[in-house]
Design goal:
This protein is an alpha/beta fold and about 200 residues long. It is about 40% helix and about 20% strand. It is built from 7 helices and 5 strands. Strands 3-2-1-4-5 form a 5-stranded mixed beta sheet. Helix 5 runs parallel beside helix 7 and helix 6 packs across helix 7. The radius of gyration is 18 Å and the shape is globular. The chain starts with 17 loop residues before the first strand and ends with a helix.
Length: about 200
């Protein structure tokens, strides 16, 4: 059987593979102007789910809200104002991450998995900075696992034939139920699709 090794081997032993499936709901597309209102994630270590989290937070003062984003999320400004302050949600995220990652060990980090995860990482990175933290990179590896790239690879290889790489399309293709534009639902479906791709890859080995 094939097992890949990652950075952070200790004493010649193979390090654990730690995956962070992450999805954010935001008030727009620009992390320097818009904000995060929901962060959902699944933490998996060596194919075992260790923890899930689904957190909301208010915006920082001055952050913009796109009308289209609010309509897409199906949420009101009153609901957003009732969410916990960003600092409270940040502390919860930090506690969760610290349970699994030694931020001082360069080889001990999450592999970020998502649908265009660079988008979520960009927003989370700005959100961390606004909370006074500049070390999101200490928790998450620079390279990311993107379902869009994986879908393209399998499609080019003639293994699958969805019309596009949207999460809803992939969920439909694999027969997985999805509640659109909810971070927790999106990330649960993302994990299920990723595991299907892993099984397909193993089948072709």
């Amino acid at each position: 059987s094939h097992r890949f090794k990652i950075l952070g081997n200790r004493g010649g032993q193979e390090a654990k593979v730690k995956l962070l499936y992450l999805d954010t709901e935001t008030t727009g597309l620009d992390p320097t102007k818009h904000g995060i209102i929901q962060i959902a994630g699944i933490i998996e270590v060596d194919r075992v789910v260790k923890e899930t989290f689904n957190l909301n937070c208010q915006l920082f003062r001055g952050q913009m809200v796109s009308e289209a984003a609010i309509k897409t999320n199906g949420i009101t400004m009153d609901q957003i104002r009732a969410f916990p302050l960003p600092a409270i949600t940040y502390k919860q995220i930090e506690i969760i991450f610290d349970r699994y990652i030694d931020r001082y060990d360069k080889g001990d980090k999450f592999y970020l998995v998502g649908q265009n995860p660079s988008f979520d990482y960009g927003f989370l990175n700005e959100w961390f900075k606004k909370n006074g933290s500049y070390y999101l990179y200490a928790y998450i590896f620079y390279w990311k696992i993107d379902l869009i790239t994986i879908t393209t690879l399998f499609k080019m290889a003639g293994r699958i034939g969805p019309e596009n790489a949207k999460l809803e399309t992939l969920a439909r293709f694999f027969g997985i139920e999805i509640k659109a534009h909810d971070a927790m639902s999106d990330i649960t479906v993302t994990r299920e699709i990723f595991l299907r791709f892993i099984d397909m890859a193993k089948g072709s080995a």
